[in-house]
Amino acid sequence: MAAGRLPPTALTLKQFLRRQQVLQLYRKILRAIREVPAEQDRRYLKEWAREEFRRNKDATEEDAIRMMITHGNMQLQELQRTLKLAKS
């Protein structure tokens, strides 16, 4: 490889930042799921989250990825609200 050249699979800055957003969302969802009191519900939600992210891992269209991140954030907020209500 010549000096200064990137491998063909290198991410652009925009793709790298979007990937970081997706990973951050995934971690937040898993952390929120840890707060679910029932073990069976925790297992179900964890598997659901994993499957959703796996199913969409090959998405490349910028608008679709942005929409999925927004949808994921809304679902995370809903889970957090539900957990907060359950604790009160």
TrEMBL record:
The keyword Mitochondrion applies. InterPro entries: Complex1_LYR_dom, Complex1_LYR_LYRM2. CDD domains: Complex1_LYR_LYRM2 (cd20262). This is LYR motif-containing protein 2. Residues 20-78 form the Complex 1 LYR protein domain. Involved in efficient integration of the N-module into mitochondrial respiratory chain complex I. It comes from Zosterops borbonicus. It is found in: Mitochondrion. Keywords: Mitochondrion, Transit peptide. GO terms for cellular component: mitochondrion. Belongs to the complex I LYR family.
